[in-house]
Amino acid sequence: GRTLCHLLLSPGLAGPLRWLQNCLRRAAQDREEDGVSHPVPLVPLTEENEDAMESRRFQALLRQLGLRPPSSEQESFWRIPASLTPQRLRRAAASITHHGPDPSGSPQDPPEPPECPQDPGAGEGP
């Protein structure tokens, strides 16, 4: 994954990488707190994240991290599978962190990544 992360450090992908990290960390935390794992959809709420999700390079990273593409016409979004443990999710997020851009770098990047939508069964509001 490290080589691919280097490829992804191109303009416009710093925000989506931080968003992905946040989604992975949130899923890990939820799984530890609830003691239950459910698939979690990755719903891109910004145009920047949506564009990244359509990028073949970004999709290759998602596959390397163990995420799965929509499996049928009824699914629109990539998912964090229920089989990924909190530890594996944190390692995946850390692999992006170590190769991501300097957080104090670009003025176009928001200071905090957008939150990953909760699994509808999580019972916790925004």
TrEMBL record:
Pfam families: TIMELESS_C (PF05029)
Organism: Tyrannus savana (Fork-tailed flycatcher)
Cited PANTHER family: PROTEIN TIMELESS HOMOLOG (PTHR22940:SF4), TIMEOUT/TIMELESS-2 (PTHR22940)
Gene Ontology CC, one term: replication fork protection complex
Protein name: TIM protein
Top-rank taxon: Eukaryota
GO biological process, one term: DNA replication checkpoint signaling
GO molecular function, one term: DNA binding
Timeless C-terminal domain sequence ranges: 11-90
Sequence ranges of Pro residues compositional bias: 108-117
Region feature (Disordered): 29-51, 88-126
Gene this chain is encoded by: Timeless_0
Family membership: Belongs to the timeless family.
